[in-house]
Each structure stands twice: as structure tokens, then as C-alpha cells.
């Protein structure tokens, strides 16, 4: 009986008695030492090293590099301007077509152009959005079209007094 007692040890987590040579508690799955974990999983140090290298390389170096190459879009300094536009309204759909130009030094993509519609008092009554796909390089001009939704339940045209075209947003392509 004393031999049997000496062959047991208490788990420090759940206080259950387990064999003295156990690597892991069979009741709560607590590992008794780092050595026991390494004996059971000999490839663990390599996995930890790989994950550490992955984190440093991808999460730190790559993300910092990408962050350096992203430029905040500012319509006032980007050089992306609306050269001309024309209203073409067909009841009940509003179409605005025009040309946008990049007079700046950076390339931009995913450009959003808004038509802000105002009433007689200058109050905003609607905002129509248009998108220009692809890259707009420095010195390049591109056509755009902004169209009101034709699937609205209200078939009455939006009664607006004036409108303004604004380049609202774009993604930088600085490399």
C-alpha cells in the first residue's frame, strides 16, 4: 500500500491524485511541466518559432510597408477634379454625365463622385453617387455618369433647384 501511495502525486490545479510519472492530469488536462509538453509534442518549439517569424514578418513588416503606401484622399489637394458635367433628366430618372481629370501626381482608384441636389433654399434634398472603376493616373481624364435609381417606388422626379458635383473619395495607389 505504501508503494502505491508513493507512486501518486496531486495535481496542483484540481488536487486529484494521479500517477507520479504522469505527464498530464487525466482529470483536468493540466501539463505538469514544460518538459512533459515537449516530450509529448517534440515539434512544438519549431511551431512556436514559425508563428513568431510569421507574426514579425507579415503583421509588422508587411503592414507597416502597406501603411506607408496608403495616402489619405483629400479632394482639395489630390488633384482629382471635375472638368465638366451635364444634367440629362428623363422623367423620373436623373442622369448627370461628365469628365473627371487627375491633375495631381498620384494615381487613384475606386473614385466616388457625388451629385448633391439642393432645393431653392440651398438645403440638401438628395445625394446621388457614382463610381469610377479602374485607375486614374496623373494626367488622365475619364468619363463618369451618375444616375438616380430607377427602381424607387416613388416615380415622381426629385424636385431640385440646383446641384453640385463633388469628388468624395478615392483609394491611393502610391508604390
CATH architecture of the largest domain: Sandwich
CATH H-level name of the largest domain... which superfamily? Immunoglobulins
Proportion of residues in extended strands? 35-45%
Model regions low in confidence, pLDDT < 50 over at least 5 residues = none
Q: How many H/I helical runs?
A: 3
| Class from secondary-structure proportions | alpha+beta
Q: Let me know the largest β-sheet.
A: 3 strands, antiparallel
Which topology of the largest domain does CATH recognise?
Immunoglobulin-like
**Domains, number:** 2
> Can you give the helix content as a percent range?
10-25%
Cα-atom radius of gyration: 33 Å
Strand order in the largest sheet = 3-4-7
Overall outline:
elongated
Rounded to the nearest angstrom, the distance between the terminal CA atoms is 76 Å
Strand count: 8
Q: What is the H/E order?
A: HEEHHEEEEEE
CATH top level of the largest domain is Mainly Beta
Summary?
The protein has 175 residues and is of the alpha+beta class.
Could you please describe the fold and organization of this structure?
By secondary structure, the chain is α+β, with helices and mostly antiparallel strands. It folds into two domains: about 30 residues, no CATH class; about 90 residues, Immunoglobulin-like (Sandwich), CATH 2.60.40.10. Helix content is about 20%, strand content about 40%. Strands 3-4-7 form a three-stranded antiparallel β-sheet, with no helix packed on it.
